[in-house]
Amino acid sequence: MKKRIITLAGLMALSCALAVGCGNSTSQTETQSAAQTEAASETQVQTEETQEAESAAETTADTEATEAAATLEDGTYTADFNTDSSMFQVNEMYDGKGTLTVKDGKMTIHITLRSTNIVNLYPGLAEDAQKDGAELLQPVVETVDYNDGEPAEEVNAFDVPVPAIDEEFDLALIGTKGKWYDHKVSVSNPVKAEE
Q1: Quick check: 172 and 181 in contact, CB under 8 A?
Q2: Where is coiled-coil annotated (predicted)?
Q3: pTM exceeds 0.85 for this model
Q4: Half-sphere exposure of 174 toward its Cβ, with a 13 Å CA cutoff?
Q5: What order do you get walking across the sheet with 169-170 strand by strand?
Q6: Euclidean distance between CA atoms 129 and 36, whole angstroms
C-alpha cells in the first residue's frame, strides 16, 4: 500500500509538473501571438496613413495642374515638350521647347521635330488612329538652320492639342515606314512670351 501511495504521489507530481510546463508554453504562445497581432495592427494603421497621405498628395498635384491650366491667360507661351522616347523629340535648335498658344481656354503647342520622318500625329492611342474617321494631325514643313555652315534642313512641325499642363497624355505617331507607335507626352513650365 505504501508503494501505491508513493507511486500515486509521484504520478501526481509529474502530472502537475507537466501541466505547469505546458501552461507556460501556452501562455508564452498567447503572449507572442498578441504581440504579433498588435504589430500587424500598427503596420496596417501606418500603411493606411501612408496611403491617405499619398492620396492627398496626388489630389493636391492634380488640383495644382488643373489650376495652372485654368490660370493661363489667352496668349502665347514658351513651354517644355516632354516625351517618353529619344526617337521622338523636339528639334535640338528649340531646346526641347514649343510654342504654347492659349485661346478661349483651349491649348495647342507648336512643336518642330528633328526631321520629316514622322509623317502624322494623333492625339490618342495608335489603335484609335487607325480607325476610319480618325482625325490625324498634319505636318507643316519648316526650315531649320543649324548655323553650322551646312545648308538649312526641312523638318516637320505639328500643332498638338494640349488637354492639361503638367499631365501626361497619349500621342501616337506614324513614320515613313507606315507603323503606328504609342507615346506619352506632357507640356510643362509655360512662360509667357515677350510681346
Answers
A1: yes
A2: none
A3: no
A4: 19
A5: 140-144, 153-162, 106-112, 97-103, 75-83, 184-192, 169-170
A6: 55
Grid coordinates standing for 80?
Answer: 517644355
Please provide residue 187's backbone torsions phi and psi, each rounded to the nearest 5 degrees: -120, 130
Question: Which three cell numbers, joined as nine digits, stand for 26?
Answer: 501556452
User: CA-CA distance, 176 to 138, in Å (whole number)?
Assistant: 14
SS3 82: strand
Between the alpha carbon of residue 109 and those of residues 57, 116, 162, the distances in Å are: 28, 18, 7
Nearest to 159 by CA among 131, 136, 128: 136
Q: pLDDT truncated to tens, each residue of the chain (195 aa)?
A: 666 667 656 666 666 566 655 554 445 555 555 555 555 555 555 555 555 655 554 554 445 444 555 578 999 999 999 999 998 999 999 999 999 999 999 999 999 999 999 999 999 999 999 999 999 999 999 999 988 888 999 999 999 999 999 999 999 999 999 999 999 999 999 999 886
- Rounded to the nearest angstrom, the gap between the alpha carbon of residue 117 and the centroid of all alpha carbons in its chain is 28
Instruction: Quote the CA–CA distance of 140 and 159 in Å, as a whole number.
Output: 9
For the record, the C-alpha cell of 74 comes out as: 489667352
Q: What 3-state DSSP class applies to 121?
A: strand
Helical spans, DSSP H, in 72-158: 126-129
| Whole-angstrom Cα Rg for the chain | 35
